[in-house]
Amino acid sequence: MAVTSSRRAEVTLPADTQILITREFDAPARLVYRAWTTPELVRRWWSGDRGQMVSAEIDLRVGGTWRFVMTANAGFEVAFHGEYREIVPAERIVSTDVFEGMPDAAAVNTITFTEVDGHTTVRMLVQHTSQEHRDAHINSGMEDGLQVVLDLLEEVARSLR
Amino acid sequence: MARAATTADAFNAVAEPRRREILDLLAGGERPVNDLVALLGLAQPLVSKHLRVLREVGLVDVRGDGRRRVYRLNPGPLKPIYDWVKPYEQAWSQRFDRLDIVLEELKAEEDGENGRDE
Known about the structure:
The complex is a heterodimer. Helix content of chain A is 29%, strand content 41%. Chain A has three helices and eight strands. Chain A has helices spanning 29-37, 39-45, 131-160; strands spanning 10-12, 18-25, 51-58, 65-72, 77-88, 92-99, 107-116, 119-127. In chain A, strands 1-2-8-7-6-5-4-3 form an eight-stranded antiparallel beta sheet. In chain A, a hairpin with a 5-residue loop joins β1 (10-12) and β2 (18-25). The relative contact order of chain A is 0.16. By secondary structure, chain B is mostly helical. Chain B starts with 9 loop residues before the first helix and ends with a helix. Chains A and B meet through β2, α1, α2 and α3 of A and α5 of B.
């Protein structure tokens, strides 16, 4: 397995209701797009270090839906789904994105794949309907951070027994 | 996330798009007010008002240079915002590190196929 240098995803907040995630990949756009839209491939990366994928369903056509389910490390299951609104292969995907634990806070994700010299920059703009929903979305990352702290506390508590 | 209710808080100060623009401009180096007015295309009193808010929360410092007032960025108060976003950014970085591995395999597969074609 190839060892790749770890590059950070850049997260910015361009407006009160938006999150922009940017990252460059050392691969052509057609491959990044394939890894982003093929269920077997999504299952291998989407949960990151936060849990295990349970399922990834993708009906890649305008009006088609997607649904990803994972079991978080803390044991609970989380699911996300949405509907595709625009698909330009290897260039652009627009879809809705609903965290099923907070179904009122639907966001619209616009993902663009820009290839230059065999490298692809992915920009994912998450558009929420309110600042409150945007902030809750970012806080979901915070809760994971908190979970790590809680896990550490538990280890410390165990060692004291 | 608990936030102060007043504008005396970096979160509120950067909630205004024009103030974010001013910070972006100052990120490239210090600038006199007139420069900012010209670059933003806003009336001087409005720019001064935004600068006052940014000064109140400590995001910009000002110094006198003859008759000019020169502003510069002081990013310190942005740290709480950075700290707030950091776990979210880390989660995506971890995802993408895994995606890198998937992509390396897809590239190797393609190279293998091309090799057979030749």
